[in-house]
Amino acid sequence: MINTVAIQGVIGSFHHIVSQQYFDEPVDVIECLTFDRVVDSLITRECDAAIMALENSIAGSIIPNYALIDKYALHVVGEHYLDIQHNLLALPGQNIKEIKEVYSHPMALLQCKEFFKLHPHIKLVEDKDTAEVAQRIRKHELKGIAAIASVTAAEIFELDILAKSIQTISHNETRFVIVKRSNSEVDETCINKASIKFEADHKRGSLAAILNVMSDCKLNLTKIQSLPIVETPWKYAFFVDVTFETYDDYKKAKSIISIMAHGFKVLGEYKKAKV
What we know:
The chain is α/β, with parallel strands linked by helices. It has helices at about 15-20, 35-45, 65-70, 105-110, 115, 130-140, 150-155, 205-215, 245-260, and strands spanning about 5-10, 30, 50-55, 60, 75-85, 85-90, 100-105, 125, 145-150, 160-165, 175-180, 195-200, 220-230, 235-245, 260-270. It has three domains: about 5-85 and about 175-180, Periplasmic binding protein-like II (D-Maltodextrin-Binding Protein, domain 2, 3-Layer(aba) Sandwich); about 85-165, Periplasmic binding protein-like II (D-Maltodextrin-Binding Protein, domain 2), CATH 3.40.190; about 195-270, 2-Layer Sandwich (Alpha-Beta Plaits), CATH 3.30.70.260. It has nine helices and 15 strands. It is an enzyme of class 4 (lyase).
């Protein structure tokens, strides 16, 4: 039973929206301004689970979060895709010509880069969280300052939407994962996706051989992300997501890859979400 969930950001953030959509029952949220704080609240048992964004369809992978999940041996127990619509929010009664600065998370700024090329008078400033900026604007009645955030944040903090859906590509999705301290108790018959990590030998064809095993065992590779191994320069670990029709196919592949690869680790086995 999950009662409390840690999120990066405050109410009105996209992580908060995921907490409302993913769980069948209402959950309490612990607001955290950094992902390090999210993980800390999980491992110190302040919460039952945590929500972490892993990749965006426009901006790509959030690599530090892969490293956090791996470093603290967290387990992915589920995933959720959220349609991300960015909106320009400010105190009521202003127009876009009066906005001098926009504060937002670097990922949000990156996703809205083309919009701000049309408004070169606006200075872009990186911040920790989208909704937290909206909260700050309302709390301190900051004029001339705008946030990039959700419609939910606009409603909660009573801000005007100066421009809707300002992201560069209209279809903009982020994949979030739900992580816990221990592995899920999902029945094998319901598991059809897994996240794994391994290191390949630093020689020709070693990665290809592992990928061929996945193919031969009827696994569908949906994501591969390399991450440098800090202790060993120019060597990389691979974070891989696979989907499959039967758990037996995955189980066979897992047993073979665990022999072929170094540092093999299962990060999570769960039910894939609808995209």
